[in-house]
Amino acid sequence: MIAFTPSPPYYAVIFTSVKTDKDSGYAEMAHYMEKLVINQPGYLGHESARSELGITVSYWESLEAIEGWKNQLAHRIAQEKGKEQWYASYRIRVCLVEREYGFPNT
Amino acid sequence: MIAFTPSPPYYAVIFTSVKTDKDSGYAEMAHYMEKLVINQPGYLGHESARSELGITVSYWESLEAIEGWKNQLAHRIAQEKGKEQWYASYRIRVCLVEREYGFPNT
Description:
The structure is a homodimer. By secondary structure, the first copy, chain A, is of the alpha+beta class.
């Protein structure tokens, strides 16, 4: 689903990843993180797609909200497992969304 | 491939889309756009994934570079075809990338 976000400015975190072939436990953790993140303070929405590359973009009210999610305890454990096992490589880009438009026109 | 981008600040355009089932000509146009964009002034890289949702993030030196690509003639024709036929809906978010980090650490 395309995320329904408020008028800019707000923040986006672009998480781009390449997975290893060690998939054990990944789907469960991803599902659990999706359930957790929606209750995180300052969370606005997220979008996800995976083919060769995985891209997840999450949207946030503020840098403080992003920091809060980064440091959330279960999420920190997931991050460690990710580096140990699931991800061959990833990039995280923290961005200020300045402008947004779409189709059908809104 | 994860895009290799310079130190922030630079710009990102997050293009999130839901396709229709009218796929005719889409793959050819997407392939042609990928060939064109890499020669566009101010282009820094892009990343793409599609499952239920499609997400393409392109990276740019400046807002002027983004505007240049938006108005590129063949790209404008592709945008029109996209609205007529290929996309049920999409959102475009123009963002200033403020911070970037990754794994393995860089």
